[in-house]
Amino acid sequence: MSTRSTETTVTFQKPFKLKAFDERQPAGTYRLLIDEEEILGVSFLAFRRTATMLLTPALSAGAGVSRSYLVDSAELAAALEADGGQPERAV
What we know:
There is one protein chain. This protein is mainly β. It has one domain. Helix content is about 10%, strand content about 45%. It contains 1 helix and 5 strands. The longest helix is centred in the C-terminal third of the chain and has 11 residues, at about 75-85.
């Protein structure tokens, strides 16, 4: 079974909170790592998302300790929609 990882970014216009975090995160652009695995047995190439990881701090925060948090992709999408921020995009 093949796997792939993609790095994207997401931008929040306002501070936000996800279940994976103990406290609210500041507005900004964040790196997002997405792991997917190939779906076997179909007549076309297809992948299923297996993990979504958001890295903190925001890119604009500069150098410092970066942490990776496993987040729920549906919760992240809902938070972005509520924020009016940018959807994830490939880097």
